[in-house]
Amino acid sequence: MDKHKKRVDGLSEQVNSFYEQKKPFKIYHGSTNSTRVQVFKRNEMLDTSGLNHVLKIDQAKMTALIEPNVPMDKLVKATLKYGLIPPVVMEFPGITAGGGVQGGAGESSSYKWGCFHQICNEYEMVIGDGTIVTCNPQENSDLFYGTAGSYGTLGVMTAVELRLIPAKKYVQLTYFPVKSFDAAVNRMQKEVANKPDFIDGIMFARDRGVIMVGKLSNEKNGQLTRFSRARDEWFSLDADKESRGDVFNKTIPLSDYLFRYDRGAFWVGKYAFKVFNIPFTKFWRTSLNWLLHTRKLYEALQESGISQHHVVQDLALPVETAVEFMSFVDDNLGIYPYGSVPSKQISRRPSFQVIYLHRLLST
Question: Which of 70, 217, 230, 351 makes the best surface tag, with the fewest CB within 10 Å?
Fold first, then answer.
């Protein structure tokens, strides 16, 4: 904690200097999942890349105190040592805790827990004049609630305290094939009522999709399947296969499930095969596996400039309009596949369902 305080004090002094000079600055995190082109100048930059430490795991209180640049795989590895995991874990290993808060990230447990910021108890932040503040529901509550989804515009996050839950060895995942948009939404709402631990879905066509429902377990039930090794199939391709059959059960090791979309970045990695004219076969997916994880794919996306010719978009929609929206996409864009997760209500407005369009859309 002494080293953390020293890092934060240094950042505070820098922000205060920018404030006194009335000079705007950019925050450099060291890595990003953004597709925006950013140019940094050393004298107009706040380097927070060193804020990447797990500070404390409190097993009794079931909380973790971490710095904002801690990525999900590092966080999960640290908490699993104590038999715990965050209730919401973003599906890409390189997504950071700060990015999850500031970007309003959700996942397949969000119907139960909400977005990532909704599992957070407290933030430490450096505000515009360099002052270090603590914000939680009782202290600086406007900043605590306001910073979620603000993309860092209200302050520089320097620490996050989040809640943890007991972990188990596996996720028992049931695949429910569906044959229409209505069937997909109805199945999702039905399964939400059964209170599983995880639920998400993918539509591969207007008349073909799959809703996947998971339960934490220490027991194996059904086929043991992994998705993290080079020889394993991409999860999205496995889901595609299961969407063509009957209801099917699999047992997946916990970390393999949490980061199931890492290899191939959902299905967007398939685009790289088209760009370089490489056959999209199991042999080449295995051989090029080291290039096909999300960290490498984001690097390639940013370095190549391809991100400026396409759009990747996440949308939040009321569940009542989900079928209408999916029909609109089918009629006007014809984009498949796309994923969806139900999300806990985050305001007093009607509950909503988050529809993720993770395929690259031509501008």
Answer: 230
What CA–CA distances, in Å, run from 77 to 9, 122, 177, 293?
A: 28, 22, 33, 18
**In this structure, are 35 and 137 located in the same domain?**
yes
- By three-state DSSP, how is residue 28 classified? strand
Q: Is there a single domain that holds both residue 107 and residue 181?
A: no
Q: How many domains does the chain have?
A: 2
3-class DSSP state of 272: helix
Q: Is the dihedral of CA 83, 113, 336, 205 positive or negative?
A: positive
- On whether both 162 and 285 belong to a single domain, the answer is no
Dist. CA 333–CA 328, nearest whole Å: 8
Query: Tokens 């105190």 correspond to what residue?
Result: 65
Q: 72 with 39, same domain?
A: yes
In the chain, the amino acid numbered 152 is G
* The two structure tokens encoding residue 54: 């797990």
Residues in the chain: 363
Indicate if 250 and 278 belong to the same structural domain. yes
Backbone angles phi and psi of 206, in degrees to 5: -60, -35
- Cβ-based burial of 67 (10 A; exposed 0-12, middle 13-18, buried ≥19): buried
Q: Residue 237's CB: how many other CB atoms inside 10 A? A: 17
pLDDT in tens, the chain (363 residues): 899 999 999 999 999 999 999 998 888 887 665 656 566 667 778 899 999 999 999 999 999 999 999 999 999 999 999 999 999 999 999 999 999 998 888 899 999 999 999 999 999 999 999 999 999 999 999 999 999 888 888 999 999 999 999 999 999 999 999 999 999 999 999 999 999 999 999 999 999 999 999 999 999 987 899 999 999 999 999 999 999 999 999 999 999 999 999 999 999 899 889 888 999 999 999 999 999 999 888 887 777 777 667 777 788 888 899 999 999 999 999 989 999 999 886 554 333 333 333 333 332
Separation in Å, CA 138 to CA 66, 122, 144, 149, 208: 20, 10, 9, 20, 47
Handedness of CA 273, 276, 277, 279 (dihedral sign): negative
Cβ–Cβ under 8 Å, residues 115 and 141: no
Contact 136, 126 (CB under 8 A): no
Cβ atoms < 10 Å from Cβ of 226 = 17
Q: Are 341 and 191 in contact (CB under 8 A)?
A: no
